[in-house]
Amino acid sequence: NAGVTQTPKFRILKIGQSMTLQCTQDMNHNYMYWYRQDPGMGLKLIYYSVGAGITDKGEVPNGYNVSRSTTEDFPLRLELAAPSQTSVYFCASSYHPTDPLKYGYTFGSGTRLTVV
Amino acid sequence: AQKITQTQPGMFVQEKEAVTLDCTYDTSDQSYGLFWYKQPSSGEMIFLIYQGSYDEQNATEGRYSLNFQKARKSANLVISASQLGDSAMYFCAMREGRDDKIIFGKGTRLHILP
Fold first, then answer.
1. A40 to chain B: which residues are within 8 Å by CB?
2. Is the N-terminal amide bond of A8 cis, ω within 30° of 0?
3. What is the per-residue pLDDT across B23-48, written as a single tens digit (0 to 9) for each?
């Protein structure tokens, strides 16, 4: 089982460049999430999706965009990268049946992004 | 107001001792789930244990147990017989019944001393 796959694992961007962080899951989870983790800090929600074609903003959406055209894929787009976006980015997915409470996240391995 | 509070930024514990990581939460929902995740220095997020708000018994998974005190809104993680490999960041998290997402605390960094 691949679970949640994130690519790339590392990336250095110059200020003003754009890039897409890829996230794919093969568990048929309908819920997917993007978090960022700044050094020594907890996770902050950027965007999430409850199904194909549906996305919602989280706590820190500015500077990012997402799309969810399929159940499997949930890419995160950074436009005009800024040093403040230097962080580790985690994609996660979750099963959401009738009783979702006991279903936590399956996390990807993370993407370490540095903007210089 | 924070929904998940972890008051211990860092802890140092001698190997083989038991350790308790504190977590308090705030919710008005009757139905919710509580989770603990471990993040070692390699960076991945590892699920450890889950407790449902209606579960009558405290959750246990191997050396991990969750001391769930509902009236106090407390969900402390207890690690018995700590090992050097337990050195990591630990996150407490909550999923509320009506919410689509999980909220994380700021974490506690645990250091196990040989």
1. 109
2. yes
3. 999 999 888 899 999 999 998 999 99
